[in-house]
């Protein structure tokens, strides 16, 4: 099946990055969010990130303008009905995702491939509540989407070969690399990455190190581009906690218990960069550790 038009649900940090890379690869993109301000903000962010690619000579000004022209926005979910591929990139909460699918399904054409950018929720369970489990897949992008090379492809138990092969071809056209993961909690990347971040929060909680020493240790001692606490702030502490809970519940192993300090930051609404405060305070000129 050939994909030409793509509907993206959710214009947050993942949704706008996904819209960016699809538009740049020549797809017609319809970006949806319930919040009109979020759509406006997403277009501004995409424009800024495309400008950055122009200034670093990764793309031409004409590529940038053509990509922007391929992105349309809508606050009406049902307008995504006629697209060939839908990517749900809403909040990492199963009830939210399910409600979106329920509203969208009656308006989708029968051939549309339905995907979720979930970083951890069971694809088989999400698919089983739709009318097309064979055309449903996990399509997991990494943040920042325009920069990160990997896309995880997760087949549910019912996903058919044609759907999988269509998405492999899409990833190829995006110029990215696919990693296929089986449908078990948090798949590959987050199964490994989140326990490391959670352990870094335990190291902070137990006073073994502070925010700066923990991040410097992993940056300078293991050549990670960002320290684990800086990375947690970048991903969003609510997302990190949600993924740890999926691992803890889904694998029933105490080694995945979320650190109480991570829970406390989320309870405080200190969710990282997006709220201006997390393990660092971003409200001044330079980020300042909060512990
Ligand atoms: N859009 C377009 N380009 C961007 C960009 C964006 N949003 N953000 C950065 N870039 C580009 C820059 O233009 C720059 O390009 P060049 O190499 O051509 O110069 C390059 O990326 C590097 O950026 P910077 O020089 O500004 O900054 P940096 O060197 O500090 O790199 C980073 C920034 C790429 C984010 C790097 O710190 C990094 O790789 N961090 C780790 C990110 C990571 O681990 N992501 C995965 C998170 S897990 C996940 O997403 C899964 C999940 O489900 C939670």
UniProtKB/TrEMBL annotation:
<dbReference type="InterPro" id="IPR006180">
    <property type="entry name" value="3-OHacyl-CoA_DH_CS"/>
</dbReference>
<dbReference type="GO" id="GO:0008691">
    <property type="term" value="F:3-hydroxybutyryl-CoA dehydrogenase activity"/>
</dbReference>
<dbReference type="InterPro" id="IPR013328">
    <property type="entry name" value="6PGD_dom2"/>
</dbReference>
<dbReference type="InterPro" id="IPR036291">
    <property type="entry name" value="NAD(P)-bd_dom_sf"/>
</dbReference>
<feature type="domain" description="3-hydroxyacyl-CoA dehydrogenase C-terminal">
    <location>
        <begin position="187"/>
        <end position="282"/>
    </location>
</feature>
<keyword id="KW-0560">Oxidoreductase</keyword>
<dbReference type="InterPro" id="IPR022694">
    <property type="entry name" value="3-OHacyl-CoA_DH"/>
</dbReference>
<dbReference type="Pfam" id="PF00725">
    <property type="entry name" value="3HCDH"/>
</dbReference>
<dbReference type="InterPro" id="IPR006108">
    <property type="entry name" value="3HC_DH_C"/>
</dbReference>
<protein>
    <submittedName>
        <fullName>3-hydroxybutyryl-CoA dehydrogenase</fullName>
        <ecNumber>1.1.1.157</ecNumber>
    </submittedName>
</protein>
<comment type="similarity">
    <text>Belongs to the 3-hydroxyacyl-CoA dehydrogenase family.</text>
</comment>
<feature type="domain" description="3-hydroxyacyl-CoA dehydrogenase NAD binding">
    <location>
        <begin position="5"/>
        <end position="183"/>
    </location>
</feature>
<dbReference type="Pfam" id="PF02737">
    <property type="entry name" value="3HCDH_N"/>
</dbReference>
<dbReference type="InterPro" id="IPR006176">
    <property type="entry name" value="3-OHacyl-CoA_DH_NAD-bd"/>
</dbReference>
<dbReference type="InterPro" id="IPR008927">
    <property type="entry name" value="6-PGluconate_DH-like_C_sf"/>
</dbReference>
């Amino acid at each position: 099946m050939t994909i030409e038009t793509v509907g993206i649900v959710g214009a947050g940090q993942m949704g706008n990055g996904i819209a960016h890379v699809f538009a740049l690869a020549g797809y017609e993109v319809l970006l949806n969010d319930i919040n009109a301000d979020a759509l406006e903000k997403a277009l501004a962010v995409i424009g800024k990130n495309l400008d950055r690619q122009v200034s670093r000579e990764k793309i031409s000004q004409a590529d940038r303008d053509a990509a922007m022209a391929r992105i349309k926005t809508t606050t009406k979910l049902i307008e995504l009905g006629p697209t060939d591929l839908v990517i749900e990139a809403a909040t990492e909460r199963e009830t939210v995702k399910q409600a979106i699918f329920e509203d969208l399904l009656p308006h989708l054409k029968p051939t549309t491939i339905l995907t979720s950018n979930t970083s951890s929720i069971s694809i088989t369970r999400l698919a089983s509540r739709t009318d097309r489990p064979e055309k449903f897949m996990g399509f997991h992008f990494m943040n920042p989407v325009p920069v990160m090379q990997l896309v995880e492809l997760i087949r549910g138990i019912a996903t058919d070969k044609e759907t999988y092969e269509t998405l492999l071809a899409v990833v190829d056209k995006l110029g990215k690399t696919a990693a296929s993961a089986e449908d078990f909690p948090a798949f590959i990347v987050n199964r490994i990455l989140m326990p490391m971040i959670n352990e870094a929060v335990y190291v902070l909680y137990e006073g073994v190190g502070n925010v700066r020493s923990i991040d410097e240790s992993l940056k300078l001692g293991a050549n990670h581009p960002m320290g684990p606490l800086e990375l947690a702030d970048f991903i969003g502490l609510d997302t990190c906690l949600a993924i740890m809970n999926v691992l803890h519940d889904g694998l029933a192993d105490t080694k995945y218990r979320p650190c109480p300090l991570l829970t406390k930051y989320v309870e405080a609404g200190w969710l990282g960069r997006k709220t201006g405060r997390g393990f660092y305070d971003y409200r001044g000129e330079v980020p300042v550790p909060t512990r």
